[in-house]
């Protein structure tokens, strides 16, 4: 395996007043030819939306789009008739397919919404638009890897609009989340692919709970989570907002994360097939 560390402050981003955002990949006015996508992942935006503001109705097609709510509330409306207010622990998946329109608003009077907005490329074009919601509690993630999103057809995936099962995605992407306590560690074994491929890509990012800091991310072990990532002969340490891209993994390989800091860390992990 080979690791490529990406510091939080090296992400793209902007402060629009109503929206404070970081971009892992090229998005909107931010462009970096080295970070256009990673496997099927095309967008990971860490967004903070001010109270009584949001994204007005806008169209999407041919993307799998999901939101991971970290704090606050996010109200969703779309052209399929779905109306939803999501809170911490909620996952909302929109399969854009042939085309949808939606809006996302923070209707709260005084509390900011903090969430991850994630886009993946679909494995098939021209799909019928669909919408799913799931909920994963902090207990589901406490010192264990909650398997949150998985490809349609993978064991445990259910295609009901609301369910306790895994969230379906029409893309070869698995999404995991954990709340990792200080001194605790977890080991993940890379999964078998539905199409029999052995080559794997992996990406890990630590949620930046410390706020919209555009300079060097705080890495004081007394104040933040410090997540050590180990795989094969490689290792790196992530502060809040930092990420690591991992290539060269194979089904059955192991990746370990350990919290070296004094604060619990919310960590998200993406596994997908090589292109």
Structure, briefly:
Residues 8-119 form the Pirin N-terminal domain. Helix content is 1%, strand content 50%.
Give a verbal description of the structure.
The chain is an all-beta fold. It has a single domain (2-273), classed as Jelly Rolls, CATH 2.60.120. Helix content is 1%, strand content 50%. It contains 1 helix and 22 strands. The chain has one helix spanning 138-141, and strands at residues 2-6, 12-15, 19-23, 41-49, 53-60, 64-71, 74-78, 83-86, 90-95, 100-106, 113-120, 130-135, 146-151, 167-169, 173-180, 185-189, 199-206, 227-231, 234-238, 243-250, 254-259, 265-273. The strands form 4 sheets. The chain has a 7-stranded mixed β-sheet with strand order 1-20-17-22-15-13-14. It has a 7-stranded antiparallel β-sheet with strand order 2-3-4-11-6-9-12, with no helix packed on it. A hairpin with a 4-residue loop joins strand 7 and strand 8. The longest helix has 4 residues, at 138-141. It is globular, with a radius of gyration of 18 Å. It starts with a strand and ends with a strand. 40% of the residues are buried. Belongs to the pirin family. This is Pirin N-terminal domain-containing protein. InterPro entries: Pirin (IPR012093), Pirin_N_dom (IPR003829), RmlC-like_jellyroll (IPR014710), RmlC_Cupin_sf (IPR011051). Residues 8-119 form the Pirin N-terminal domain.
């Amino acid at each position: 395996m080979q690791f490529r560390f990406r510091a939080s402050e090296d992400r793209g981003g902007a402060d629009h007043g109503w929206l404070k955002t970081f971009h892992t990949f090229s998005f909107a006015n931010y462009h970096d030819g080295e970070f256009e996508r990673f496997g099927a992942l095309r967008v990971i935006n860490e967004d903070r939306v001010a109270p009584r503001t949001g994204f007005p109705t806008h169209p999407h097609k041919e993307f799998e789009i999901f939101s991971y709510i970290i704090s606050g509330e996010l109200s969703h409306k779309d052209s399929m008739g779905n109306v939803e207010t999501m809170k911490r622990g909620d996952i909302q998946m929109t399969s854009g397919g042939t085309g949808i329109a939606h809006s996302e608003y923070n209707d709260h009077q005084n509390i900011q919404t903090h969430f991850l907005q994630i886009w993946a490329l679909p494995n098939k074009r021209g799909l019928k638009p669909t919408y799913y919601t799931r909920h994963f509690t902090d207990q589901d993630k406490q010192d264990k890897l909650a398997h949150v999103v998985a490809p349609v057809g993978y064991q445990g995936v259910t295609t009901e609009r609301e369910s306790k099962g895994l969230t379906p995605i029409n893309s070869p992407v698995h999404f995991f989340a954990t709340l990792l306590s200080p001194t605790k560690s977890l080991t993940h074994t890379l999964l078998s692919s539905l199409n029999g491929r052995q080559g794997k890509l992996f990406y890990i990012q630590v949620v930046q709970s410390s706020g919209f800091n555009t300079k060097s991310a705080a890495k004081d072990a007394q104040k933040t989570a410090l997540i050590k990532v180990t795989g094969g002969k490689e290792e790196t340490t992530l502060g809040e907002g930092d990420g690591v891209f991992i290539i060269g993994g194979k089904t059955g390989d192991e990746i370990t994360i350990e919290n070296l800091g004094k604060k619990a860390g919310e960590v998200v992990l993406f596994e997908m097939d090589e292109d």
